[in-house]
Write a structure and sequence with these properties.
CATH superfamily of the largest domain: Tetratricopeptide repeat domain
Protein name: Tetratricopeptide repeat protein
Helix content: over 70%
CATH class of the largest domain: Mainly Alpha
Number of strands: 0
Low-confidence stretches: none
Number of domains: 2
């Protein structure tokens, strides 16, 4: 498992996938399977493998309570990977409003807040991806940058940092892009992740009919 995670960090996705597929066949413990499903979903997203993305989003739903925020987000991801972008966007809009309302309420645990902010930042990233798939990049520049910045504002994580850096770079703002990578905690890893995310974004755009 750890070998596979290290390979993902190194962008050796095919090698990581082979290890995870072997482990998936032999493991029955649900917590370990959930980790495998999550890693396979990460690989699917990075490589734009829509069939695997839909498959592992569906499998990962088993790891959450039906109707919970993570479960609903994964339902949206299944639809996204299947190319049903309008329905995906409707679910994401509804879920983002629900999470935003819940975050404003009191009596919440830190872990609950952390998980919901992670989902909310992921919603913004997915919405930006849908815009880039459905439109010429220059026509949605303002909206895409806004969504990437919102994702970063909600949760300053490695994923949101690299996505924002990639979006800035895509639209020619290389100074801001470079600054985000240079000032990150793990510059080397962030640089590799940035290249992978930027490549994935460009592939999404190139695949549009």
């Amino acid at each position: 498992m750890y070998d596979a995670l290290n390979l993902i960090d190194q962008e050796k996705y095919e090698d990581a996938k082979n290890i995870l597929l072997k482990e998936e066949k032999n493991i029955t413990e649900i917590s370990k399977l959930c980790t495998i499903y999550n890693s396979m979903l990460e690989i699917s997203s990075a490589t734009n493998n829509n069939s695997d993305g839909a498959k592992y989003s569906e499998l990962l739903k088993k790891c959450y309570t039906e109707g919970s925020n993570p479960y609903v987000f994964l339902e949206a991801r299944v639809l996204y990977f299947k190319g049903n972008y309008d329905k995906t966007d409707r679910i994401l809009n509804k879920l983002s409003k629900k999470i935003s309302n819940e975050l404003s309420e009191g009596d919440r645990t830190e872990i609950h807040d952390f998980m919901d902010k992670n989902i909310l930042s992921s919603i913004y990233i997915l919405k930006a991806s849908i815009l880039l798939i459905n439109n010429e990049p220059e026509k949605v520049k303002k909206e895409v940058i806004y969504l990437a910045e919102q994702a970063y504002a909600v949760k300053k994580l490695a994923d949101t940092n690299t996505f924002l850096a990639a979006i800035y770079h895509l639209y020619g703002d290389t100074n801001h892009s470079k600054s985000l990578i240079e000032n990150s905690n793990d510059k080397t890893r962030q640089s590799h992740a940035f290249e992978a995310v930027l490549k994935s974004i460009k592939q999404k755009i190139d695949l549009v009919p």
